[in-house]
Amino acid sequence: MSTTEQRVAVVTGAARGIGAATAVRLAAEGRAVAVIDLDEAACKDTVAQITAAGGKAIAVGCDVADEAQVEAAVTRIAAELGAPTILVNNAGVLRDNLLFKMSATDWDTVMNVHLRGAFLMSRACQAHMVDAGFGRIVNLSSSSALGNRGQVNYAAAKAGMQGFTKTLAKELGKFGITANSVAPGFIVTEMTKSTAERVGMGFEDFQAAAATQIPVQRVGRPEDIANAIAFFTGDAAGFVSGQVMYVAGGPLN
Ligand SMILES: NC(=O)c1ccc[n+]([C@@H]2O[C@H](COP(=O)([O-])OP(=O)(O)OC[C@H]3O[C@@H](n4cnc5c(N)ncnc54)[C@H](O)[C@@H]3O)[C@@H](O)[C@H]2O)c1
Asked: Is 246 a catalytic residue?
């Protein structure tokens, strides 16, 4: 890569929440960013925020669990922005329920978006990274990977993301590619808002209750996670690989 060439970052689930904050942050670091989400039109706010700040971004509609859509999306990104050498597997969904009430469909949906999605996106982008002799992959795990009542599907998927990450690190290291995982605690997004609704609490009360359990006594913001992702995706982090960083306002048991 010449010194003037921009690295291309792909962020999935970037229409809102942690993904949107990450896309904006990586653009501020000088990356050209492909903003992926299910609905291309829903990505336009994130793209507009980046371009208004002088950055470069495109919106890409893609279901990360769909093999053909992923292949088409990565081909399009490579053609329009250049070879994607930074990938943030952030797209996610919740389908919470206690084990005895959980449907097989809800199990499959969570596995497909998180694990199959990260697998398909990583496989599609790694060819470009190998060619470039450089790559950065960051996979979103969660504090729920340690076990969380009502989330047997999500906890398994997020623990799976950690094993997936460590294996990518071992397989791809020799090509100049690192893989790391960021495991957020409570972050204020539509996802945690939906959890508050499910348990019948107002979102403000839900956040206040969560904050009392967090050593730094506040809940997290999407930017807290974007900061950690920016570190892992930076050129300077080339000797950090296969790690899981919990970003949760304190240690977890
Ligand atoms: N918010 C938290 O407290 C928290 C904590 C730990 C981990 N996480 C993880 O961080 C990531 C982002 O979470 P968030 O809180 O910003 O969630 P969010 O629900 O606000 O955003 C998730 C985005 O992913 C998109 N998405 C869902 N399925 C998709 C698919 N198949 N293909 C493409 N895009 C898809 C959604 O449309 C949405 O825009 C997720 O992986 C989540 O599991 C969040």
From this structure: no
